[in-house]
Amino acid sequence: MSTVLKPKFKTFLLAALCLGYFDNLLASSCHSGGGGQVINVLSSEQHFQLGASTQYRSVEGQFDPYGNYRANSPETTKQSFITTIGGAFRLNDDWQIGASAPMIHNDYEISMQNHSSTAMGDPAIEARYMLWEDLNFLTFHPEISLYGGARLPMGNSIHHSHDPYGADITGEGVTTLHAGIASSKLYRPIKFSLDASFFYPLKKYVTHLHNEPISSPYTMKTGNRVQTSESIAYLFNGWSSTLGLKQLWQFETSVDRQSTQGSAARLFTTQIGFNYFYADVWTIGVSYETAFPFYRYEANQPYAQTVALSMTYSGL
Fold first, then answer.
1. Is the pLDDT of residue 22 over 90?
2. What values do phi and psi take at 260, rounded to 5?
3. Which of 172, 153, 229, 151 is nearest to 32 (CA)?
4. What pLDDT is recorded for position 309?
5. What is the 8-class DSSP label of residue 95?
6. Cα–Cα distance for residue pair 117/195, rounded to 1 Å
7. Mean pLDDT of 118-146
8. Number of H helices, E strands in the chain
9. Is the CA virtual torsion 303, 270, 129, 40 positive or negative?
10. In a 10 Å sphere around its CB, with 0-12 CB exposed, 13-18 middle and 19+ buried, how is residue 113 labelled?
């Protein structure tokens, strides 16, 4: 691989861990509708990176807590447009910080009635530490980085929603901490990547539901979440392609320290993507995510088809 293509290749592959996951709005927020932990990842040659992504998501049905599927009725359509802006900055050789913020437009048509809303989702902040760097001359020496951050409850949640169908819900309503580890190894022109993260939503004292006060307030702890992802990428003549798998498990929510049956969730998806590199600093990408072929593993999740377009600018 030429020295010109190498920075481009690393830009795409590292960005694919998170920027390609601007569509992780649905994963990291599970079925709450909030924004996700999506921070651009810098390669060793980059000082900063700015990115934007627009995602179209069509919800075609729902899996119940036991994995049974129920399709939307012919009179029901649910679609969302999520535009996310994010950036990252390198502090030194080992540390980088980043942030992202989504704007969400939900458009639901239910029983011939339109319910739509546009509002900010939950922004995220993150810090990342490079533990090991990928050394090409060592076959089994991968790149490993550790990261951690938080998703902030700035989007509208079910607690203050005015819409009976939740079209105005763009956030989870609680601060969610996350930590993870990312690993990758380049075997030119192919690179393998693995990522594992843990999400810890903080407790919330609930006094309102759908913007109405409730008679008996309670303390709610949304279930912790574990997410893993695996991907393989290939570069060819300024283009790159990637194939990835993602798995998400959410544990049961507790109310006043009592577990709520049927609140656990599970989501397995497949993602394919293509990127084009322009003038060394611009990357344009498109990705598609679907539950195929893992339908039987879905539980307590909407069934959605997702298409995302992204663009990043990298300062070398």
1. no
2. -100, 115
3. 172
4. 96
5. E
6. 33
7. 92
8. 2, 18
9. negative
10. exposed
| Of the candidates 79, 36, 77, the residue with the CA atom closest to the CA atom of residue 57 | 79
**Residue carrying structure tokens 């990342």:** 128
- Of 168, 73, 62, 79, nearest to 120 by C-alpha is 168
Query: Do 51 and 40 meet the contact criterion of CB atoms below 8 Å apart?
Result: yes
Q: What is the DSSP letter of 298?
A: -
Phi/psi at 188 (5° precision): -50, 135
Average pLDDT, the chain: 87
Report the distance separating Cα 68 and Cα 80, nearest Å.
Answer: 23
Residue 301 has pLDDT above 50, yes or no: yes
pLDDT at 39: 57
Place of tokens 């939503």: 201
Q: What global pTM score does this model have?
A: 0.87
With tokens 């290749």, the residue in question is 9
Which residues have CB under 8 Å from 314's CB, separation 6+? 11, 42, 46, 48, 49, 281, 282, 283
Neighbours of 213 (CB within 10 A): 8
